[in-house]
């Protein structure tokens, strides 16, 4: 699933390439009986209203909240896109949906005023697209329960510690991934953060020394910023809006490295993978020991 760096990379691309353009039309083949009556475009009735509402609107800017892409339109409305497991927003020309296209998993197309399109590719069809009044965004069901942004200027290490201790008995990997505690961190970056500071993913929050928590805070911000700089992680399906792969998958030290020698200097460990509540955790059992 695209995490904070991948979503921010997408937002940066939207601001560069589609800001100022007008939506001329929108198409989707999303439909699911499970979503009937729900406020997203997989419900046909909602999509009809969505289409009428967005046609003719100018894209003013894009921003991110947690793992959500927010496309702000004229008329005080915002398109909210959660790319879920396999989604990517792509900018180009995708007018005909067939196996001859660059991407056969396109399920939403916004036709733009410059003759190009903004398309949502989504292999597993889990992504969400909805429309929210801009002034009600923070109170919307998708955003209202999110924790603070880890890269926000006012998110200090003291606030980081305070958030973690909302769940003192929680296992640190699960707490880092809890979107109500901190927004935007998922499987990839929780593994990388814990590897860098030598903390076991099953370690309880209350057992982690304050000095380690301060190092965790620093590692978190450094790793997230670095991944944004190099375009995020494209080990799986994620691509930026030009269809290009990010490079963070080439820089991981724990995530996806099961069976490899640990790259920590002077460490002879082998990266191990375990399951934590149906999610994978990658770590080195030699230098990431439980207290």
Automatic annotation (TrEMBL):
Residue intervals of the FPG-type domain: 253-289
UniProt similarity note: Belongs to the FPG family.
SUPFAM superfamilies per the UniProt record, alphabetical: Glucocorticoid receptor-like (DNA-binding domain) (SSF57716), N-terminal domain of MutM-like DNA repair proteins (SSF81624), S13-like H2TH domain (SSF46946)
InterPro entries: FPG_cat, FPG_Glyclase, FPG_N, H2TH_FPG, Ribosomal_uS13-like_H2TH, Znf_DNA_glyclase/AP_lyase
Keyword Membrane found: no
Keyword terms, alphabetized: DNA damage, DNA repair, DNA-binding, Glycosidase, Hydrolase, Lyase, Metal-binding, Multifunctional enzyme, Zinc, Zinc-finger
Name recorded for this polypeptide: DNA-formamidopyrimidine glycosylase
GO BP terms in the entry: base-excision repair
Formamidopyrimidine-DNA glycosylase catalytic domain: residues covered: 2-127
Cofactor dependence: Zn(2+)
A single GO molecular function term of this UniProt record: 8-oxo-7,8-dihydroguanine DNA N-glycosylase activity
Assembly notes: Monomer.
One Pfam family recorded for the sequence: H2TH
Reactions catalysed: Hydrolysis of DNA containing ring-opened 7-methylguanine residues, releasing 2,6-diamino-4-hydroxy-5-(N-methyl)formamidopyrimidine; 2'-deoxyribonucleotide-(2'-deoxyribose 5'-phosphate)-2'-deoxyribonucleotide-DNA = a 3'-end 2'-deoxyribonucleotide-(2,3-dehydro-2,3-deoxyribose 5'-phosphate)-DNA + a 5'-end 5'-phospho-2'-deoxyribonucleoside-DNA + H(+)
